[in-house]
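Usage

Read records sequentially. Each one opens with the input sequence:
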Amino acid sequence: MQNNKQNTNTRIVGVEIPQILENIRVAFEYEMGEYLDTDSRLRNKVELRAALVNAARPYGTCRQLATMVNKLDHSSTIHSGNQHEMYFNSSPQYRRNYAKALEVVEKFARRHQLLPRSNHQIGGAVTMESEIDSLNLTILSLQKRRNALIENLSEKRRKAILAPELPH
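and closes with the structure output:
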C-alpha cells in the first residue's frame, strides 16, 4: 500500500515528477542562455538557482526541487524559499530570473495540463487561489516600485532642466 501511495505522489499525468522538473530546468537554462552551475556560490548563480526553485515550488517536494538543481539535500531548497522575498526586494536580476522561471514553469504546466500540489497532494483550488493572490500582490508591488522609479526619474530630469548652467 505504501508503494502505491508513493507512486501517486511522484507522478503527474503519467509522467514522473523528477522528469518534469528536469525538463523545466533544461527549458529554463535554454531561455536564460546559461547553465545552472550547482557548485558556484557566486551571487548571480545562487539567485538563478533560487529563482527556478521558487518558481517550480508548486510542482515538487523540496527534495525533488533540490534534485532538479543537482543539490544533495532539500536544505538548499528550503533556504531558497526563505530568501525569496529578500532576493525579490533587493535584486533586479533576481526579479528578471524569477519572471523568466515563472514563464517557463507556467508554459510547461499549461502545455502538460499540470496542477500545482496542495497540502502535499496533486491539484487543488486552494493552492491555485493562493497562487493568484500571491501573483496579484507581486503585481501591485511591482507597479508601486515602477511608479516610484518613474517619479524619481521625472524629478531628476526636472532638476537637471532647472539647474543653472555653470559659468565657463
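Summary fields computed downstream for this record:
- Helices lie at 2-9, 17-32, 43-56, 62-68, 75-90, 92-111, 125-162.
- The radius of gyration is 20 Å.
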